[in-house]
Hints:
The complex is a heterodimer of chains A (661) and B (295). Chain A has a two-stranded antiparallel sheet. The radius of gyration of chain A is 25 Å and the shape is globular. Chain A contains 21 helices and 2 strands. With 661 residues, chain A is mainly α. Chain A has helices at residues 19-41, 45-53, 58-89, 100-134, 143-162, 190-218, 231-263, 276-309, 317-330, 346-358, 360-374, 383-406, 408-414, 418-448, 454-480, 497-526, 568-574, 595-612, 615-634, 644-652, 657-660; strands at 587-590, 639-642. In chain B, a hairpin with a 2-residue loop joins strand 1 (130-137) and strand 2 (140-145). The mean pLDDT of chain B is 94. In chain B, the strands form 2 sheets. Chain B has a 6-stranded mixed β-sheet with strand order 8-5-1-2-3-11. In chain B, helix 2 runs antiparallel to helix 3. Chain B has 2 domains: 37-117, no CATH class; 130-294, Immunoglobulin-like. Chain B is elongated, with a radius of gyration of 27 Å. Chains A and B meet through helix 4, helix 9, helix 10, helix 11 and helix 12 of A and helix 1, helix 2, helix 3, strand 7 and strand 9 of B.
Amino acid sequence: MFGSLFGRFNQGNVFPDSKITASAAIGIVVLIVVVLSLITITRRWKWLWNEWLTTTNHKKIGVMYIIVAIVMLLRGASDAAMVRLQQATSVGVHHGFMSASMFQQVVSAHGTIMIFFAAMGLMFGLINLVLPLQIGTRDVAFPFVNATSFWLFAAGALLINVSLGLGDFSGAGWLAYPPLSELKYSPTTGVDYWIWSLQIAGIGSLMSGINFITTIMKERARGMSLMKMPLFSWSVLGSMLLVAFAFPILTVTLTLLALDRTLGMHFFTAGGGGNAMMYVNLIWAWGHPEVYILVLPAFGIFSEVVSTFSSKRLFGYKSMVWAIMAITVLSYSVWLHHFFTMGASSNVNAVFGIATMLIAIPTGVKIFNWLFTMYRGRIRFASPMIWFMGFVFLFTMGGVAGVLLAVPAIDFQLHNSLFLVAHFHTMIVSGVLFGYFAGLTYWFPKVFGYRLNERLGKYAAYLWIVGFVLAFGPLYILGLMGATRRLDHYSAATGWHVMFIAAGIGGAVIACGIGVQIIQVIYSYLKRDSTRDITGDPWNARSLEWSTASPAPFYNFAALPVVSSRDAFWEMKHAKKRPEIPELEPLHLPKNTPAGLFIATFAFLFGFGMIWHLWWLALIGVLGIIMTVLIRVTSGEHEETISVKQLKEVEASLTNWRDYA
Amino acid sequence: MRRKRKILILVAAILIVFGLLSYYLSNNSVPVLSPSGLVATKQKQLMILALALAAIVVLPVYSLTIIIALKYRETNRKAKYDPDWDHSRVLETIWWLVPMAIILVLSVITWKSSHSLNPYKPLASSGKTLNVEVVALDWKWLFIYPQQGVASVNRLEMPVSTPVHFYITSDTVMNSFWIPALAGQIYAMPGMTTQLNLEANKIGTFAGSSANISGEGFAGMTFSAVSAPLYKFNEWLAQAKSSTNSLSVAMYQQLARPSQYNPVAYYKQPVNGLFNAIINRYMMPNQSLASGVQM
Lengths: 661, 295
């Protein structure tokens, strides 16, 4: 009778049978215990609670997003290292150090974690840090929703890591195609971990999308019409529109798969009336826009970086805006190119192939506009520019591979091969990741008040670029040699071994790059007094976020800026007449609240309950979420007032361009 | 001087890498680039054409990037500095229109090649076409030759210069049927048939595999595709027919059980209608495979 209380825990084999997974799980537990003890010993609980866990401030939420994302990036990179090691050693009579099923779990975890938790986390982190400052406002439109989004993201990230210690993870690839991901072929908890960690994080992303769209539409500084908005903000608008329309598809698709697996329904099963092709269409109707969700903000970052470090206005602003919007719209019309090989008619394949190539046009336009921003500029090759140069070379090459893949007749030969793997890593690493690294370096002083070490930053960029070519060049070749993706073993007669070893060496070089970045952060922290930004404008930049002090005060701007041109801050700096300092008024800022943290905790319990079939726990989770929301919406005042006196006290302790000059 | 030396070292390094690479590639099989089949050859030509068109945009981007980055670096004070020059209708029109023109050309090529290289389209030929039914199983490939009355596991034999028409399904999860030396891949899906046409124009043994992850034994789902002269193909048929096992429903059910890294196996007399029965069972899950075959 009590058996059902323990759900799937009754089925035995709860703990991982692999030593590697077990030690990773133990390592994580030890790490958590160490961190918690440190907090306790240094008596930081109260500080942690007041300053971070309950915060609704967009900059602090941004910092937390980035911390979680970097932890997940390291987890995803470890998975990648294991894949490289396995493929470099598992040839002929030798079978690598991982079993096939473990290898497939690692591959699936790598993709899932890198996209959903590393890339998305860095993206939302950067948007949180920068967007409100850049459009001259004090916070996002819905600060409490923003905090809840972050905590849901963190809950998803935690849930996916629980799979290391309890049960297993999905081995069905990062998009878990049925029938393989159906209960019949994947009977363990793996796919359920995949479903529920993405579902929880995905709801958070959807809420963030709506939040930032509203923020951009309603909270811009006075005078900042849309066509005066900096390009990063434009790219965020495009990206968030994609989130708002694409993520509901993901939510529904995951729900249907969960219904199949949990309640024995037949949406995507083989037989019983299910159709796996439906799933593949749905998941890519979300999945393709997802690529542009990630890459558009990176394009925005590059626009800011290139213009700032060339000390020149961005070339072709209107073209750039049209290009972003064209990409936003077109990205919905190309999803079928992920499965030309499913046997659709020639007409269908050709239409989607051509639609795909159309995206190359606005993307090409953007690259030319960046190059002509540099033309007749004074280019400072600081590390963000090094990332940009790496991006231009690699991304263009990846784009060419993309055009090949977009021709259906060619795609039949390249699909699911390592050529494809190399292509999308080129786009996502050089496009997305390099862009975010450039952005993190660029905006770091705005958040922390000091710059990152430039020399180490450049070394890291060079190592990443060289390592990338070494790691993924061989994969392009391997694809042409007929090597498919996700192979845990191959025959020696294929001749692939040498190339896999080369790719492994490339991976090691990238790992060195990551190592240098970690050293860079530590070193820059230790030497922070020598790189402090006392002007608020360390790069001689152009947009509003640089007009306030570094680090930006919690209210961002003592008086909200008024804008009259595109490069608003550049114009302020170069105006003949200094703008008058307006009369300060009391501010209203959102109060701290633990509600977001509570909602996410209940969501975590709900997800865990669903995975392990602990129905009572899932019920507690749902009721907990409903109760928390009810209490929150019926409780009184959510804002606090900062008086002019308090404001002046804080302002007196800051320096920025106004009083520094 | 130091700069010159640096450039020299860079050029030397690039040459060495390319030398090693071409040595490696000449000693190993690169089926996509040196195909042995009619379809794969056309696909390769198409690839080169698309690459050449893309080069029209890529080469200017690369050279412009290098030239602009060198000329307008901050330390070069001789270069013109024009901080407010931010648009040019002529230039922007050029880089909207040139990529559009290239994509227009590529679109025509895409449309035409999607039809001419449609994998479902039978290849024109004076001779007879060989029909082969392919079933993806956990984790091996079953090839049924309905007209010849033989079946094989993990080995596909076909006469050279003869069109082969594949009817493909899966009796497990989704797989993808791929012989890169001969033609591109197509998915194998349970309850559905997909088709693929190809023709080997060289004699040889080519690697085939599943290109879509299908579970634990996925990496071992490889097979040899052998293109041989007709008399050898007939010898092979005779050898397969002399197999002691005939592919009855019971034998098939035994074969369909999950197994990894299967050796090659031959069967005589595959039961009539097996391929269709395997597919239909997904529509009528309560019906047994045996009753499906009799229908």
